[in-house]
Sequence to fold (151 residues):
Amino acid sequence: MIERSALLFDRVLVVVAVNPDKRPLFSPDERITMIRRVVAPWANVTCASTTGFVVDLARQFGARYLVRGVRGATDVDGEMALADMNRALAPEIETVFIPAHPALSEVSSSKLKQLAREGGDISRFCPSEIVEALLRRLVGTAARDEEGAHG
Fold:
């Protein structure tokens, strides 16, 4: 998504949006650090995080478009609802949907973590920097879970 967006737009801001209803494996700062490493080849791509609405951050950066990836029909309903909400909050910012690469259309963070926990090869689904960090974190999480079960 980032590579395709970098080809379509003069400037791309990758946003780590903090969702208090989710418990990601990595903190926003860790996620930004990893993303910055991955996007380094594209001079027109930067990264930021927000605990607020993405459209508010987009306004601060003078963005006119929000790019959202859709993996398939199941994503479309939720993404359309989000686009409608964003349009209500910031009618001057248009949402653009880009379909996921077919090889990645069934990949979700939960499926990726499950595959990694089971020893599967996740290298075709994400950059090597992310693979290494994810495997390190999952091993650490599994060890802590194991200690908690025996403690």
In short: The chain has a mean pLDDT of 88. Residues 107-151 form one domain.
